[in-house]
Write a structure and sequence with these properties.
Blueprint: H1 6-30, H2 37-59, H3 68-82, H4 90-114, H5 124-132, H6 136-164, H7 172-201, H8 219-238, H9 243-246, H10 248-272, H11 276-282
Length: 296
């Protein structure tokens, strides 16, 4: 495809997302009513994802999807809140909305800052498609687009529980959830700033191992998982009897990072930066803690 600059790329992505959201909202407004708001929302989410997938194929760049991960959750949260029952605790809803918006602004802003434009695609996507061979279309549709959409929706189900129906009133667990969530978003924000500063000054082959990155090799992922666990805590605060399933989305996020994202990134870092092995020997993989001392 033609090479376009960052501003033009962001304009095109914004247009794609606008069409996607119009399609999703049109389904919610005029489509058949299933009688279950969560199912109506999921169908709308999938339809919007298919629009983004179409753009990814048109531009031959699956990174068209990247910001969808963070842009949709605030919209779903607001839609559910507006459609909530009269007995829904409004303080809880407000805290959840504040947290989701803070997370979305941080993550989307980080993407806008770091993404060079449509000339760049996340290195993992071509790798997945190449491995699939003739099945690359299916992998692109399912693994790169629909599976992440499903994961995010699953992670948002505690929000759905908390903001759509009469539930237990505001309590101490809501405060814990809010504090944990904002601490997680703050950790991600600081990790982003430190990494951006490092990448702007680093020498070829140099590896990041300072600040938060000296306590965890992936502090941003740790913060991301913390955010989804905070949403699950909000769900438990609203409906303690549903606690047995409300953490499924957060656990799925944890499994994705530990089982797929981190191993792929670690392998690539070792191939590109031989000194990364010294970071592995010294810095914890995921949960932040003081670095280990390496015997010489």
């Amino acid at each position: 495809m033609e090479r376009v600059g960052k501003a033009a790329s962001l304009t095109r992505i914004s247009a794609v997302y606008s069409v996607a959201f119009v399609v999703g909202f049109s389904w919610l407004t005029w489509g058949p009513d299933t009688g279950r708001l969560w199912l109506d929302s999921l169908i709308a989410d999938v339809l919007a994802t298919l629009v983004v997938f179409g753009a990814s194929r048109y531009y031959r760049n699956s990174s068209c999807y990247d910001a969808y991960w963070s842009v949709l959750p605030p919209l779903l949260t607001l839609y559910w809140w507006v459609d909530s029952s009269p007995g829904t605790d409004q303080v809880r809803c407000a805290l959840i909305a504040m947290l989701v918006f803070a997370w979305a602004i941080r993550l989307t802003g980080n993407w806008v800052y770091a993404w060079p434009g449509l000339r760049h695609e996340d290195w993992r996507y071509p790798l997945l498609r190449d491995r699939a061979g003739r099945g690359e279309f299916v992998v692109d549709l399912i693994a790169i687009h629909l599976v992440p959409t499903g994961q995010v929706f699953l992670g948002l189900l505690p929000v759905y529980v908390a903001v759509t129906a009469p539930a237990r009133g505001f309590n101490w667990l809501d405060i814990v959830a809010f504090v944990v969530g904002f601490a997680a978003v703050a950790l991600e924000f600081v990790a982003d700033l430190q990494m951006h500063r490092f990448t702007s000054e680093r020498q070829p082959g140099q590896v990041m191992s300072s600040g938060l990155w000296s306590w965890s090799r992936h502090p941003n992922y740790f913060g991301e998982v913390g955010f989804w666990f905070a949403l699950a805590l909000f769900g438990v605060a609203a409906a303690p009897a549903e606690a047995w399933w409300l953490f499924i989305g957060a656990v799925a996020m944890l499994a994705m990072f530990l089982g797929a994202s981190i191993p792929m990134m670690e392998k690539r870092s070792l191939e590109r930066r031989p000194d990364y092995q010294t970071v592995i020997d010294r810095v914890p993989r995921f949960v932040p803690r003081p670095p280990r001392r390496v015997r010489v």
